[in-house]
Amino acid sequence: MKILVTGAVGFIGSHTAERLHALGHEVIALDNFNDYYDQELKDLNAKALTKKGIVVTKKDLRDSDFAKDLPTDINYIFHFAAQPGISQTSTFEDYFSNNIIATKNLIDYAMSCEALKLFINIGTSSIYGLEATFPEDKAPKPASHYGVTKLAAEQLVLQKSREQQMRACSLRLYSVIGPRERPEKMYTKLIALGLQDKPFPLFEGSDKHLRSFTYVGDIVDGVVSVIGNETKVDGEIINLGTEVEHTTQEGIEAVEQVLGKSITLNVIPKRPGDQSRTKANIDKARRLLNYNPQTTLLEAVRKQVEWYKANF
Q: Of 81, 98, 277, 301, which shows the fewest CB atoms inside 10 Å?
C-alpha cells in the first residue's frame, strides 16, 4: 500500500512511519520541520527514517499548494501533524493554523485521492477536558486551545465520513512516552535534568495527577491496526492508551529507579488547562482492533533512558 504520514519526523509519527515501512508499505513522509522545539531531535528522527529507506519531504500543510507535487494514488493517510501540547509559548493562531487550517488543506488533498481507503486523524485525550477517563461517546469539554482546535480538526475529518465522501476515523491518544519524546515533555526532561544533576520544574500539584502513561510501541500497534479494518472503524472515534494509571510522582520515581539517582524538584505555578486525570477507556479499541497494550511504565522508562543516553 502507498501511505502518506504527516508530522513524520515527530515523536509518534516517526515511529509509525518506521512500522509501516517495516510492514512492507511504501511510506511518503511529510513534515514542516517547524521550530517549536530543537531541530536537533527532528533531524535525528529524519536521519533514522532515511536510514530505513523512507524519503522525508519538507512540506507545510498550511500552504494551500502543499500537495502540488504529491501523488494522488495514496491508499491511507495518517495525520499526525499538529501544533502539539499545552504551551504558554504557543499562540491561539499557532494552534488554529496548524491544527485546523492544515487539516482542512489535507482533507482537500485527500478528496483527490481516488484510491484512498481510509483517512486516519490522530486526536488526543485533551479533547475530553480536564479529566479523560471516558468512552468515546462522552461529550467533549476541552479546556485548552490545543484541545479545542484538535476537536475541530477531528470533526472536520469525520464530517467527510458522515457525508460518505471518504472513509475516516480519529484515534485519541493518551500520554504517550518512550524514545523520541519531545524535549519539553515530562520524561525526556526528567531524564536530561536527572543526568545533569539539575532540578526538574514540577507544576504545583501535578505530582498527584493521574496519567495513562503509554509506551509509544503500544500506541503504534493500535494506530497501524486500522489497516484492513476500514469498514469497522469508518466514522469512529477510538481511544488508544493503557488502562493502567500512575501518578506523576510514580513516573518521577520510575526515572529515578532507572537512573539510580534522586532528582531534585523545583515546584512552579500551576499550568492552565492541564489535565488532572487521564485513564484510557479502550473497550472499543479492544472490540474493533483487538488492541491490548502490554508495556509497563518501568519498561517504557528503561527504553527511553537507553535511547536518550545513546543519542545525547
A: 277
